[in-house]
Design brief:
Elements: H1 7-10, H2 24-33, E1 38-42, E2 48-53, H3 54-62, H4 75-81, H5 86-89, H6 103-113, E3 117-122, E4 125-131, H7 132-139, H8 143-158, E5 166-171, E6 174-180, H9 186-195, E7 202-208
Helix pairs in contact: 3-4
Domain BON: 142-211
InterPro entries: BON_dom (IPR007055), CBS_dom (IPR000644), CBS_dom_sf (IPR046342), Diverse_CBS-Domain (IPR051257), UCP036990_CBS_BON (IPR017080)
Keywords: CBS domain
């Protein structure tokens, strides 16, 4: 079968992190300098403790539990507004992803949780972070990459067809197949496998087989 790319394949491994004791001003400066909306808070063993976000910084800067003045009776929110360290500012527990998740599963989780990114953990340790843009990049592949995977993995490795038996053309993610296969029953198999390749938009098959 085709190997589907996972969160571990597309996640960002070099992640800006904070310790619970990181001062507020350093948190704000690092988020701004790296143009990121949120960053994980970890201990000395890289165990994930929480996430601190730009909205948390805004709560602190406005002196309100919510920049729009909502949640005025929420003591936890007021605590964030008065926070002096990342540990006091962070949100916890955190929704996380696993490195072995498929990309569609991670996309569904981002949508379900209404978040833009998820820290990736293994044995509670931070491994990286995966964002919406990481997942989108997985599907925005060059036509050459798609063609190579169809030719080498689908037609060659999986189906064992001789090179040149089926010609593959890819344009803007649309795959066109021309040629012949040994048996009629293989035609829908070829199409289905090609549709499972990351980045493929449509498959137009012009294939023949012995009667």
């Amino acid at each position: 079968m085709l190997r589907r790319r996972t969160v571990g394949d597309v996640m960002t491994e070099e992640v800006v992190t904070f310790r619970p004791s990181t001062p507020f001003q350093e948190v704000a400066a690092m988020l701004d300098a790296n143009d990121i909306a949120a960053a994980p808070v970890v201990d000395d063993n890289d165990t994930l403790l929480g996430m601190v976000s730009a909205s948390d910084v805004l709560r602190h800067e406005t002196g309100m539990p919510d920049p729009q003045g909502q949640d005025g009776d929420d003591e936890r929110a007021w605590g964030k507004a008065r926070a002096r360290t990342a540990g006091a500012l962070m949100s916890s527990p955190v929704f996380t992803a696993r490195a072995d998740w498929t990309i569609p599963r991670a996309a569904r989780e981002l949508r379900r949780r209404h978040v833009k990114q998820l820290p990736v953990v293994g044995d509670d340790r931070l491994l990286g972070i995966v964002s919406r843009s990481d997942l989108l990049d997985a599907f925005i592949r060059s036509d050459v990459e798609i063609r190579d995977e169809v030719e080498q993995d689908v037609l060659g490795r999986i189906l064992g067809l001789n090179q040149g038996t089926v010609a593959v053309e890819v344009r803007d993610g649309d795959v066109t197949l021309r040629g012949h296969v040994p048996e009629p029953r293989l035609i829908p198999v070829v199409v289905g496998l090609c549709q499972g390749v990351d980045g493929v938009v449509t498959v137009d098959a012009h294939l023949t087989a012995p009667g």
